[in-house]
Fold this protein.
Amino acid sequence: MKIGILLFGTKTKVSKESLYSSQLVKKAILARGHAARIYYSNDFQYTFYNSRPGLLYRSKRFIPPDVLIVSANILSNIDLHLALVKQMELMGVRLYNSSVAIARAKNKLRTIQVMAHANIAVPKTLVVTDMNYLDAAIKELGSFPMIIKLAQGSFGSGVSIIESPRSLRSILDLVGPPSENQRNHVLIQEYVREAKGKDLRVFVVDGKVIAAMQRKARRGEFRANVAIGGSATAIEITPEETIMAIESSRILGLSVAGVDLIRTATGPKILEVNANPGLRGITGATKLDIAGHIVEYAERLFDMTKQI
């Protein structure tokens, strides 16, 4: 079997976290006796001959692997980058995660909309796009501190803690009005004090929880992401948290997902659902073969589609 891994960017401009995770998956592919290849999005060219979508890779006709694992390490121009995944889907390439699922997960506003529609608990959130409504939004949300997020971002980027109305206005001034910056949609969320700088990362593959860790922010930092210095330990999650993680992945359409939850006085709440969860922290904390589970799903997907 031939299994590919798609990374966005060039070989020299991929983040260390994304490269580490892809190499771990590649090692797991080879360990199971399959052929493995990493593809870089910038080396693809689109073709449309006789109204049929196709691709070239490094100026040669792209021959798809049996299954392609999409590592959605995309931070900007998401729609344009996902056109490559859509092109592959139109060509009938077996792959995961899908372009639609990635697009939903990469947009924090869209993720919250989907969660709320499915009655999955999330922190109290307001979205601000116009400074004229800022005071009303602050009053509605409650007391400071508050968490502010850009609609797009990964590995803790685009997330800040705000201690006062003045600092909130300063951040929103940097974002800019709609005519100047398409990333003006800002999510303002309640700060959950009882979490004490901790959250849970639950790794879901093919509708099953395969691992979970608790992340704790380093001193002086409120974000618990391992990529920015947070620590991680393996943890047992509750049945409620398990169901919440699985359901969140399902409704977004993600076959592989990293679901971030926070424990509150009123029960667990979803923070984010990641379409490109890193493997370094969860593998180190749990000592489990997370990459192996990702490859095993590729094997099952190949077997299932081959039988159709």
Notes: The mean pLDDT is 87.
